[in-house]
Amino acid sequence: MASLQEYGMNFNPRMKVNFEGGDLTSDAGLLLYKEFDHKLGLSQTVKQLLVVNDPVHHRDHPNSDVALQKIYQHLCGYHTEPRDHFVLDLDSSGFAAFGKQHGANYNHHYAQNEFHPLF
């Protein structure tokens, strides 16, 4: 019997989602994407329409499954090549300055003169 906090998945009716605690996983939200995929028929469409002319015959997984895996991987935030993305990293920590250097100011928190990149 389903409660207000328990949902069955259409793509697999034996699978239930509830919000009572118990067994938790950080990837459970992916089931909602799978349910949406099932409603739209995305996986079936990809399997029907994706044709790759590749002479490799020793493949374990069809190209359509690999493409769908990449889609779900991207939805989860699991990117395979994070070094290709631009990361703006501003470190606001100061650098100690000694003597009377131009641009150095007193930092009360660290009780010393330092350069701060934001000032």
UniProtKB/TrEMBL annotation:
Where on the tree of life does the source sit, at the highest rank?
Answer: Bacteria
UniProt domain Transposase DDE: residue ranges:
10-79
Sorted alphabetically, which Pfam families does this protein's record hold? DDE_Tnp_1_4
Q: What is this protein called?
A: Transposase DDE domain-containing protein
